[in-house]
Specification:
Helix content is about 25%, strand content about 30%. The chain has about 450 residues and is of the alpha/beta class. It folds into 2 domains: about 230 residues, Enolpyruvate transferase domain (UDP-n-acetylglucosamine1-carboxyvinyl-transferase, Chain); about 200 residues, Alpha-beta prism (UDP-n-acetylglucosamine1-carboxyvinyl-transferase, Chain), CATH 3.65.10. Strands 22-23-1-24 form a 4-stranded mixed β-sheet. It has a 4-stranded mixed β-sheet with strand order 2-15-17-16. Strands 4-5-3-14 form a 4-stranded mixed β-sheet, with helices on one face. It starts with 9 loop residues before the first strand and ends in a 5-residue tail after the last strand. The protein binds shikimate-3-phosphate (S3P). Shikimate-3-phosphate (S3P) binds next to α5.
Length: about 450
Amino acid sequence: MSAGNRPQPMTARPGARLHGTAQVPGDKSVSHRALILGALAVGETRIDGLLEGQDVLDTAEAMRAFGATVHRDAPGRWRVHGVGVGGFAEPGRVIDCGNSGTGVRLIMGAMATTPIAATFTGDASLVKRPMARVTDPLSLFGAQTLGRTGGRLPMTVLGARDPVPVRYALPVPSAQVKSAVLLAGLNAPGRTVVIEREATRDHSERMLRGFGAEVTVEDGAEGRVIALTGQPELRPQQLSVPRDPSSGAFPVCAALIAEGSEVRVPGVGLNPTRAGLFDTLREMGADLTFENAREEGGEPVADLVARFSPDLKGVEVPPARAASMIDEYPVLAAVAACAEGRTVMRGVGELRVKESDRIDAMAEGLRACGVTVEEGPDWWIVHGRGAGGVPGGAQVASRLDHRIAMSFLVLGLAARAPITVDDAAPIVTSFPDFLPLMQGLGAVITPEQKAA
Ligand code: S3P
């Protein structure tokens, strides 16, 4: 399904204190991978805490189309009966990945070394996003692809009949590309090697090992060298999905900027390749603590406690941290708008090829809210309003991007006047319960009359 059929305007109003516990949903990255690896294992994988956002539901539907049996037993509790590595059937319909770059890129990888054809498409956001970054390495395995000009969806992939293993140095820091190559490597004989200069999220490596694949990771002169031995038999797993730090970021940031707030977000995944936002917030002077640090489902988790922080200061975010918080720059920009001084974000060109051009989308919306933003191809600077406060009182465009929508709704809770997002419908892709969860904390966020 493609999200965003009918726009849903939504307004956040300032003044309320947020209090309570926010049970954020399962991690989106881990959820996609659990379904895909479950579909490639022999036998039944059980998943607990699966995110039931539209992106993940689209991946579940895709796995059915490739021949896996996928059942939902209860909220968050799913079973996948896999077909084994190389066992994907040719889908009888077009695979619609909706809004999800992760879904389409990982699934293309997973089928690229099986001799079947599949055609992929997505919503108005996804069909604009670059796919050459995955089809380039997949062609090295022997897969063929035919898409629109510039490597855009819709696109047909013809999986390699006699795949060869690949050694590939990532030209962009992308866990999606890394994961597509590793998933393709599963059905190639011998060792497939991916080299990344900067560490990106490593859920694929962790989960592949959990399913019984041989994956080694070494730090060398070229960067992180990840090697996978092809053609393993993947053993079905019992998986527990940690709560998504990228979703937890919204109630956390809201509590930091909305006067008098205190919010607890339990069981959030704190994989070091994902947790960069929380380090940055602390550097800004956020009152943010971690309690009950533990391990769940092979990932480190903790309970986050965020309290209103009146003295936030702008910071320079180290570019080396970018990959570990790539999805959190929009909400960081909302916090930065409330802080005193400049927040400088460099080395973030990847933000321009997400669900929207996130630098442009945030800069445009922040300016409409009375905040000064400077930007370049791979950098931007938010000039915090500090004690003067963010004027707000604007309508901003979410551009089919869930994180842009949620970031401005968070900012609206702390601005001097309400902020309306023209379309909050895309939030369903990653955080379907965002609205009731935020309202449950006391936030005043309300849907507007739908546009005709
Ligand atoms: C993801 C990787 C990131 C991130 C996306 C999820 C993943 O994209 O932005 O939301 O699950 O692998 P890139 O790997 O392209 O940076």
